[in-house]
Amino acid sequence: MPAVLSAADYADGNVRKNDNRWLNLNFFRTMHSADAFGPAYEGSYLEVEGGARSGALDFYFFYDAFDLLGMGTYKTRAGDFFTKIKPRFSLDALTGKDLAAGPVREWYLATQYKGFNGGEYYSAGPGVDLDVPGVDLLQAALWPKFVRFQGSPDIEYAGVELSVNWCATIVRKMPWAGNLSYQGWMDYGVDNTYSRKSGGDNFTLSEFQMFNGFYWNIGHYSVSASVKFNHNLAYKSQYASSATTWFTGAHYHF
Fold first, then answer.
1. Element (H, E) at 199
2. Three-class SS of residue 176?
């Protein structure tokens, strides 16, 4: 999870006060995975996840490598991947002013690159860090999306998306000096006229994904059990695009 930051008051000119970096190595096993192109399946993937804060730049990324060692339903696949790269630029740090208002602790220009086999999405829009009692980290962004697929140089408008991610420590004392955290994310996309225009009756204007992870953390190690709710995954209403996916995971925190 990203480092939990203190209040974003940069009036003293010290934009480096919240600098940090972190890196995780995650292994996930999935069951009943949602699939817009076929039936639900089982699989596994290795994920490198990390981030940093450097002055006005807040950075997050992950890279998923699927079907490791031929494990899972699709044993013959190789080289499939999925990645998100999410740079955010703090408006508070850039202006040297405390722009906090109500529950909003810090404002950003948020951007995102999302890449996968044969395609990529680009997004940019306003983002915020929010202060909510009992929640260690809560971030949100609202942005238009643009898509480009393999074989075409064209970048097309693909709707608007609300993205939220969070982390909360729900049990602070567990065996072996551990704790239990709840962390996850939600993406809700609407107005994807590109998918409807290009794909026919089985394509939809909206998509919903919500990942809910429960992590038992002990020092540098964690194990997890998670569930992901999907509706019209990949903007398609076919096959297992609305299946619920289950995860078990093992994690190392550098």
1. helix 193-199
2. helix
